TrEMBL record:
Belongs to the BtpA family. Signal peptide: none annotated. It comes from Sebaldella termitidis (strain ATCC 33386 / NCTC 11300). This is Photosystem I assembly BtpA. InterPro entries: BtpA, RibuloseP-bd_barrel.
Length: 272
């Protein structure tokens, strides 16, 4: 039995992404519509996910493109405002993801009582954002300093739009990440948001992960969710819940419900 049952309420859990529009300080922030519009759309998307039946939600600054690896204070402040305003309406577990800054994600989690964070916690990469380095030792010490030690850490070990500088086998990455860093979960991704996670890679990671939870992190859809969940312990789902399954669109509650009905049927068939 993994921590998923205690924290999210079920095994084979579906964490839905609530993608926030560009925020103050972001290049594509709409200054005329302002935060009121960002807040309105965040509420609509969140409620569509919650009412559609997802197990948990993760708030992320998905449209803060192009991403920073050292995120500005105004971004975290805006995200905290949104979650704070929504908090009375949130009935399911939630997490946060401040792209791509592990410490800022933990700061936001501590401030909003989030249950989990997803980040690039380990590794050095050649990426679309330049050379991308991490400092897991300092990050975990920061987590303890701010009182966020109970926040579950979801390690993305196949970063989107990036590749390890060293030529390392994914199984070796999974083994060493688990041994050295004790992650609560490993997330296995495709190349970009919405790109299908390779089932063969997912299985390789699962085979060496032992008791560590494994998430399919991108590209889980209605037509592959059973295959992905037959390997992984859960999935992080964003794009497929949107109108026409397009990344840039808002959430379609009917798509969420159809997907979650299939997931619940799958879980029931497994006695979960």
């Amino acid at each position: 039995m993994s921590w998923l049952k205690d924290v999210i309420g079920t095994e084979k859990a579906i964490i839905a992404m609530c993608h926030l529009l560009p925020l103050p300080g972001d290049p594509y922030y709409d200054k005329e519509k302002g935060m009121a519009y960002v807040m309105e759309k965040a509420r609509e998307d969140f409620l569509a996910l919650q009412e559609g039946g997802v197990d948990a939600v993760m708030f992320s600054n998905e449209f803060s493109l192009p991403y920073l690896t050292e995120v500005k204070t105004e971004t975290v402040a805006a995200m905290a405002r949104i979650i704070g305003e929504l908090k009375s309406e949130i009935k399911i577990p939630y997490g946060v993801n401040v792209l791509w800054d592990a410490k800022k994600s933990l700061d936001l989690a501590a401030a909003t009582d989030a249950k989990f964070v997803r980040e690039i916690f380990t590794g050095v990469y050649a990426s679309d954002f330049g050379i991308w380095n991490t400092n897991i030792g300092e990050t975990i010490r920061h987590q303890r300093r701010i009182g966020a030690e109970n926040v579950k850490l979801l390690f993305n070990i196949v970063p989107e739009a990036a590749r390890y500088l060293a030529d390392r086998d994914i199984k070796d990455v999974a083994r060493s990440t688990i041994f050295n860093n004790r992650p609560d979960a490993l997330c296995v991704s495709g190349l970009t948001a919405g790109s299908e996670t390779d089932s063969a890679v997912l299985k390789q990671v699962k085979d060496v992960a032992g008791e560590t939870v494994i998430f399919a992190n991108t590209g889980v859809r209605l037509n592959n969710v059973e295959e992905q969940l037959s390997i992984a312990d859960g999935a992080v789902v964003g794009t497929t819940f949107k109108y026409d399954g397009k990344f840039e669109n808002h959430v379609d509650k009917a798509r969420v419900k159809e997907f979650m009905d299939k997931v619940k049927k799958f879980r029931s068939s497994k006695g979960l």
